[in-house]
Amino acid sequence: MTDSLFIRACYNKPTERTPVWIMRQAGRYLPQYRAIRSGHSFTEMYKTPELATEVTLQPVDILGVDAAILFSDILVVPEAMGMELRFIEGRGPVFSEPLRNELQVMGLKEVESNEALSFVMQAIKNLRRELSGRVPLIGFCGAPWTLATYMVEGGASRHYRHIKEWRFKRPDMLEQLLSRVTDALIDYCRAQMDAGVQALQIFDSWAGLLDEDGFEHLALKYVRKLIGAIRRPGVPLIYFPRGGMLWLEKLGDLGAEVIGLDWNIAPRRARELAAGRFALQGNLDPTALYAGEEQVRRHTLKMLEGFGRGRGHIANLGHGILPDIPVENARAFVETIQSESAGFRNTEQAV
Amino acid sequence: MTDSLFIRACYNKPTERTPVWIMRQAGRYLPQYRAIRSGHSFTEMYKTPELATEVTLQPVDILGVDAAILFSDILVVPEAMGMELRFIEGRGPVFSEPLRNELQVMGLKEVESNEALSFVMQAIKNLRRELSGRVPLIGFCGAPWTLATYMVEGGASRHYRHIKEWRFKRPDMLEQLLSRVTDALIDYCRAQMDAGVQALQIFDSWAGLLDEDGFEHLALKYVRKLIGAIRRPGVPLIYFPRGGMLWLEKLGDLGAEVIGLDWNIAPRRARELAAGRFALQGNLDPTALYAGEEQVRRHTLKMLEGFGRGRGHIANLGHGILPDIPVENARAFVETIQSESAGFRNTEQAV
Lengths: 351, 351
What we know:
The structure is a homodimer of 351-residue chains.
Chain A lengths: L4 H6 L20 H7 L4 H6 L1 H14 L5 E2 L6 H5 L4 E4 L3 E4 L6 H5 L6 H4 L1 H14 L5 E6 L1 H10 L7 H9 L1 H25 L3 E6 L7 H19 L6 E5 L16 E3 L6 H8 L4 E6 L8 H15 L5 E5 L9 H24 L1
Parallel strand pairs in A: 1-4, 4-5, 5-6, 6-7, 7-8, 8-9
Antiparallel strand pairs in A: 2-3
Helix pairs in contact in A: 4-8, 9-11, 10-11, 11-12, 13-14, 14-15
């Protein structure tokens, strides 16, 4: 797989065309996903390796994307640390007892991923067998700051009152939590690599809640520690700090091969700021796929043009695909990348 | 009032100390506000000039801020354009019939602010009399993009599906709406100035939903038109593009004297990007006021240090004050600015 389009693009190596996958590509917008989901709870889906395997493969078959990403949830780690998690229809994941004091932080369990999260490892093994080299398999985890935010808030939140109170009033307690979560993630990511993932994405979905100082000391510091502990030759790492595009310049020495971009930042500007130090992944606004197929093609070409002729771009949306996107439009996005990006590349070689 | 601290700072002129006010300073965190609010609906409050006047004055008396900002709501303009607005407890403002087609856009009324919004103008006149020169009075409006977002979504929204669909699928219809809203705002802002506001802030609360291209063509284009039409000598304009800190460099030729900052951007970086072309307002994370008074002082001093010794800074939070902030902490923020910022200024003069 090290010579796949996706892995080569992660390492900034030349590719004939731009590889493409879609965040949340195994999801509700696919009728085939909804068919399986109708018979099982979300929890059953990610805890049953056969189901997780099946839905992970769907977009590879249906859309022809250039990478598979494991169907799972970032909150399996806090769950393995002992926090009871429930998925409430229309409200998303909710922790029954959010962390609100030091005693609760002290009470979190250490994670032995191969035991507590064996269902993830089994799904990875199944997938490697089923994929048998068709496309690489991406594993993932939530970043420490993002997981801590969920664990303290308990679920979706309006002002993130509790985690922010920790940040400004009890930074010591927050740092203790971030350390514990980072340790659990180190074990979890290593186990995913042992089981066979060929790349790994770290989702920092709440980076944008922070000020610059907080981003450095509460987000990056722990991501740097995580990356330092899990790096392996041949397994590229992708860091996606959503809402953190203002801080792209700071990510050059993080150790991640790829930085995921949300749609706020213009591709051209991201290229300038990256200055070849890391590859870029993204970043079409997912709502652009609400437009008609012809318009999707146009918006996609404009994005490709923005990223320009250089190597080191993996096409994706700037956030997960939305559940009510027509499949034809997702396919138009993927097809446009696959059929048109070679032109951009050829121009590069001609120059 | 042109020699008040606040107005001088807006125009980048020297001041003995940094002026300070707080977004949403007339609000729920004040027991005196809640006392009045308990007897009246939110709608009654902003439509009754006497009530609007009373709550506008509260933070001037209680916290001693350096500017008053009219108590009102940005949605009075769509309301005057004919959209029925309801405030639902715990859910915020909701339009009964959000805009979903061209016919509805065509059906929007032109706004004669002095008639349809006379309650605002009356409150402004009352306030000028009551304030009698103590501090300047700031008027405000929502930016065209932000008002259009509310009008199309109908209320708070998760993915802003509808306005984004217009943006990518029917840009022509969106531009028509933005033009109509801009025209209404020109009339509204002029009427506020005629009635006596001494500065005016344009809130672009949903700037952060956009990509760079959208920010330029759907947000800035119309703000530029608005500013061009309403500029008057002696009445500084403040533009606050929340979530748009990535695009600060683009705002140099907008015509606004002041750019409001959210807390994402580090003050030092904002100073560099502004390069003296505009004054800056902000930007402490409002949740920092959840910490104790002593910590609030420390966080505030750190912010002052970040903005440094130059002129042209108006202290504020990076977003509205939250309803459950202890009043002592809001006072600690204001007092720290007022007692400590002179030190920073004096150093400047010494250098």
